Amino acid sequence: MQERASIPFRTGLATGLAIVAAGPSRAALLGAPEQGQVGFLPANSPVASDIQWLHNAILLPVTVGISLLVLFLLAYVVFRFNENAHPTPTRTTHNGPLEIAWTVLPALVLVIVAVPSFRLLTQQLVIPEPELTIKATASQWHWTYAYPKTAGGFSYDSIVKEDKDLAPGDIRLLSVDNAAYVPVGKVVEIDVVSQDVIHSFSIPSFGVKIDAVPGRLNKAWFKAGQEGVFYGQCSNICGIDHAFMPIEFHVVSQQVYDAWLEKAKKAFASAGGADLAAAAPSARAPLKP
Prior knowledge:
Elements (H helix, E strand, L loop, with lengths): L6 H14 L8 E3 L14 H35 L15 H30 L1 E2 L3 E8 L2 E5 L8 E4 L21 E4 L3 E8 L4 E5 L4 E5 L5 E6 L4 E7 L11 E7 L1 H14 L16 E2 L4
Parallel strand pairs: 1-11, 2-13, 3-7, 6-12
Antiparallel strand pairs: 3-4, 4-5, 7-10, 8-9, 8-11, 11-12
Helix pairs in contact: 2-3
């Protein structure tokens, strides 16, 4: 695992910044897995809500329906056409209506799945005009977040907390020394790159999962509707410490975000800011209310 001699300083800074976020706008949601949990993490963006709707309303019923149909057909064939019940095999080789049915019906199922899927893909890839852009750089094995010059022009490393540094309320292997902060209700664009190997930036509650590829700039976005703390991880096997590369985002009110921003500007003043002006323009669409 990489050297972490600076963790005591970062832990102190994170504690100080956490005090700012512990006011009236305290987190209302926790986007983290729970013991024995089954299902999705709480959705906190339009994309995440649509992903869960597509799964629960379309993909799951279609999957269950096809599975039950196949199970019924298998059971029917076993009991109807076994050697005892049907000793003389049927010589039928063609059945026009049946062949048309098993061609048309799967095609209709694919159309039912495809239409909302294409809509969702478009929603994920066509990024609305962002109100904040954060550059997330992946390295073996941590993330570096850079805020644009319009937001202070600073960057900092975000490293998983070791067990000895965990504070009350922290989550083992998910909490980090320096989390990313974003304001609630704002369109946030994430520009994802990598310094070494292929990583993957994934926050399930935001519906964000995009590869970090060396030499390539990938973009994703989210608009958090509720305040809270939301966790993710690198979801590509990127090396020996792949399991120690979590993501932690705090969604806070504009007032709390502004206060954190002022403290972060001073704390990370020595770090270089992100020059996002040179980034390749992404496809944009008007933000729907």
